[in-house]
Amino acid sequence: MASVIDICNLALAHIGQGSINSLDERSAQAEQCNLFYPYTRDSLLRQFPWNFATKSIMLAQVVSDIKEWSYVYSYPPECLHIRRIYNGTNSNQEIQNEYEVLTSGIDKYIGCDIENAYAKCTINIVDPMLYDPLFIDVLAYKLALDLIMPLTNSATRTQEITQKYQYALSIAMLHGAVEGAQKRSDNNKVRSDRAYINARR
After folding, report:
1. How far is CA 113 from CA 57, 64, 98, 117, in A?
2. Same-domain pairing of 79 and 17
3. How far apart are CA 44 and CA 24, in angstroms?
4. What's the Cα-to-Cα distance from 27 to each of 5, 17, 48, 75, 142, rounded to whole Å?
5. Does residue 111 share a domain with residue 77?
6. Residue 42 domain-assigned?
7. Is 117 found in the same domain as 90?
8. Is the pLDDT of residue 188 over 90?
9. pLDDT over threshold 70, residue 84
10. Contact 136, 7 (CB under 8 A)
């Protein structure tokens, strides 16, 4: 299975750069990988509903003076992005429920009108041993895109790697690494009467 260094070296190979042995070594390649890797990883995890990073979490209700919502819950610390909020006693998780992400300036919360709420989330997975192989391909190309300009300053190679990144992403989506490959029938596409509210930051 791939390690962080393996993924970085794949990205470096994509842009014609030499490999590294450690993120702490004294080289421009290691310095840039150390800078970009965690942000590129988290951005890609958050951007798509990857199957391996999807988890349903029971939310913890908190006491709050927020009047707009019947229930306020703590935002799960391991969550990078909430995909859906649903009632834990309701087996139909396809219902789109209205919710809002709130902040006190220090902590984040979820406001909704759902009792016993669960959140279907993309969680922050940092161990590459848990990654889908197709995700690793996409991550290596996305990291390569971030490394091109600081290491090569090549606009031409940027276009080339962008195309390869998009192709790798399409393959991942086609083969189900990204949630959505399993199509729902029209009868299961149940939506709430109220419009779904995008999470506010």
Report:
1. 17, 13, 8, 9
2. no
3. 23
4. 14, 11, 32, 39, 21
5. yes
6. yes
7. yes
8. no
9. yes
10. yes
Number of domains in the chain: 2
Cα angle: 119, vertex 121, 127; to 5 degrees = 140
* Domain with 62 in it: 53-124+183-188
Neighbour-count burial of 5, counting CB atoms closer than 10 A to its CB (0-12 exposed, 13-18 middle, 19+ buried): middle
Question: Which uninterrupted H or E stretch holds 90?
Answer: none
> Is 86 within the bounds of a domain?
yes
For residue 194, tell me if it sits in a domain.
Answer: no
pLDDT confidence tier of residue 14, bands split at 50, 70 and 90: very high
Mean pLDDT, the chain, rounded, equals 85
103-107-112-113 Cα dihedral, nearest 10 degrees: -120
Do the beta carbons of residue 80 and residue 45 sit within 8 Å?
Answer: yes
Are the CB atoms for 125 and 131 separated by under 8 Å? yes
d(CA 98, CA 198) in angstroms, rounded, equals 9
Output DSSP code: residue 195. Answer: P
